[in-house]
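All the exercises in this workshop are built on plain-text protein records. A learned vocabulary of local backbone shapes supplies the integers on the structure line. Once this layout is familiar, the rest of the handout is easier to follow. An example says more than a description, so a record of this kind follows:
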Amino acid sequence: FVHSKQGNQSAGATFVLLGFSEYPDLQVPLFLIFLTIYTITVVGNLGMIVVIRINPKLHTPMYFFLSHLSFLDFYYSTVVTPKLLENLIVEDRTISFTACITQFFFACLCAVTETFMLAVMAYDRFVAVCNPLLYMVVMSRKLCYLLVAFSYSWGIGCSLILTYFLLELSFRKNNIINNVVCEHAAIVAASCSDPYISQKIILVLATFNEISSLMIIFTSYVFIFITIMKMTSTRGHYKAFSTCASHLTAITIFHGTILFLYCVPNSKSSWLMVKVTSVFYTMVIPMLNPLIYSLRNKDVKETIQKLINKNLCC
């Protein structure tokens, strides 16, 4: 009965997302900057999906995974950015308990799924470089669907577990979240009950996800590097490196930001850094990924050019 009563109280709770409210003069400039970033993110990621769909040359496992990465980046940014933009131009920065937990669930789902999607893409590059003749046999349509399904399933599973333990916490009627997004640590900090179990659960899951995904990536690239070093032709070296360069750049930015975010101590002086990193993680990375892959890819650039020329002709 007591637990049920706490749950009912929490359900009626509201949160205030402080965001960058301590800098009133920057609200409008930040709104314009974030709106521009979000627009580029939406156009870039949805554009990448369209380009992959309409060009038969891009109907390969690598671009199949890339289209899902673009979808995740688009969805991740859309879960977070509209509320962030709203909070920059309105006085009322409140968000309901249900909306806050829902935002956390979908943001967590996207983040975990993207972590393993990047690992899957590393395995795909390993097969492409180390077994080029068997690439289409090994990376069959069935395996591609299974790898993508696993990434989404694991993301949903982790999100459900973490959300469940957040719902076990109790909150006051009005709560302050010192962040731009309903992020786990900020929600837990607002709780008035013992968050020990919830904190331990996210520590275990986050550590497992980071280590396991990075091990897949590291192992794949070790074998890729060994294979490249055995190649005798300079052209072979260049082709192999160009195949992996975009993916390596995306991995470095994504995991570098995650590791930095969780290495920042939870002190008052570091909250600004946490907010900036959260914005980079939820908005800037989803914007950069399509740019990284399109600028370094000849087939993608050719398809975009044809689309632009076709529209201009029309």
Summary: The CA atoms of residues 61 and 141 lie 8 Å apart. The beta strands are 14-17, 94-96, 174-177.
